[in-house]
Amino acid sequence: MGTHVIKMPDIGEGIAEVELSQWHVKVGDLVVEDQVLADVMTDKAMVDIPSPVHGKVIALGGQPGEVMAVGSVLISIEVEGAGNLKESAAPVVDKEPVAPKVEAVVVESKPAAAAPRPAPVCQGPMVAREADERPLASPAVRKHALDLGIQLRLVRGSGPAGRVLHEDLEAYLAQGQSNASAPVAAAYAQRNDEEQIQVIGMRRKIAQRMQDATQRAAHFSYVEEIDVTAIEELRAHLNEKHGTSRGKLTLLPFLVRALVVALRDFPQMNARYDDDAQVITRLGAVHVGVATQSDVGLMVPVVRHAEARSLWDSAAEISRLANAARNGKASRDELSGSTITLTSLGALGGIVSTPVLNLPEVAIVGVNKIVERPTVVKGQVVIRKMMNLSSSFDHRVVDGMDAALFIQAIRGLLEQPATLFVE
Question: Which GO terms describe its molecular function (predicted)?
């Protein structure tokens, strides 16, 4: 028997160190070739580390959250034959890390026959929480629970930090009503438990980026109300006529088109600001970042060259990227390079929000929910579909007047949708 040592690989882009985000194995586990051993986090993405050999795990080289240098020992595996460990190799510490808190996000390597990861184990689908305790869950899971009539506080989460996943909703439903009365009494029981959650991996990257953005940029927000009745009628008409053959359109591709057209007159919004070099770079290409919520946090896949895409092309790309991000399949290239960002919470969009800039960009356009309400049109009170755009800008680069004019231009395009397509 010999020892095969796997070192932290060089992931490229001049990266000298990466964060160990999650182990998928422990000491004593038997692994097969191409099985995913660990996830590591770079500045841009999560990367899977597969096993190149069959064998037994005998040592782990770090703990989740630890920053490791490229080339350092990641894991040691006992294998048949001589292995690759030489006497001069650095010693490996046989230690078992704490339980991981973060799931994989972006799969860089795609093994041909990766062993499937175990499904989340739910220790009983029901759990009692305080009435005012807000369980962790993505907007999509919250919407799913709302549609199913499930109270999230009664569902035990099997995701990172107890996050409720779609699988947990299914487990809750599968349990049926046999013990539906059990959590009712438990819901009023006193609780004094505490849980400490290590901020690592994707959650730490999100925290760092949000903190950096608010500290470096001079944020200011501008909110405008838009009558989207006409464009919603156009969307419904196009879906009825072409939905079967071309796919259904949401409002997002129309917003992307409005951004593209408005940016022709406001190129200063489609820019990146290097505040270290004091250089503003305005770009002709419109690469729209579409903020997407996943089970592991907020991700921003990029619709590249939106200026060259039709409505259906944009819609298909938005859908493809969103699915890739939510399923942890988006690549580093798909998660970087945006020039302006569009963010929306969908049905949970609220009335007003204050989105945080996606540095080094200088503008982000936030979409709030559509509501029907009485509006005065030509002296008459009528019911119209209204929506707010809550947008933020970097005041170091963008003047308030320009920001207002930019959003007003988007408003005009959306309220008169024919102008989106007039060249």
Answer: acetyltransferase activity; lipoic acid binding
Q: Could you give all domains of the chain from N- to C-terminal order, each with its CATH number?
A: 2-79 (2.40.50.100), 139-170 (4.10.320.10), 218-420 (3.30.559.10)
Looking from the CA of 58 toward its CB, the CA atoms found within 13 Å total 17
If 0-12 CB within 10 Å is exposed, 13-18 middle and 19+ buried, where does residue 378 land? exposed
| Helix, coil or strand: residue 140 | helix
pLDDT in tens, 32-74: 988 989 988 776 667 888 999 999 999 998 888 888 888 899 9
Measured CA angle at 251 (ends 248, 252), to 5 deg: 100
- Residue 406 falls in which region: left (phi positive, over 0), alpha (psi -120 to 50) or beta: alpha
Q: Which residues are catalytic?
A: 395, 399
- For 33, the token pair is 């070739």
Cα angle vertex 75, ends 73, 76, to 5°? Answer: 105
Q: What's the whole-model pTM score?
A: 0.65
Extended beta strands in 42-105, E state: 46-50, 55-60, 67-69, 73-79
Q: Which of 61, 70, 75 is nearest to 15 (CA)?
A: 70
Give residue-wise pLDDT tens across range 79-136.
988 777 764 444 444 444 444 433 334 334 333 444 444 444 444 455 655 555 678 8
Angle of the 139-148 helix axis to the 166-175 helix axis, nearest 10: 20
Q: Where are the alpha helices (DSSP H) in 149-246?
A: 166-175, 182-186, 201-216, 229-246
Q: Which 8-state DSSP code applies to residue 87?
A: T
Name which of 249, 220, 402 is nearest 319 in CA terms: 249
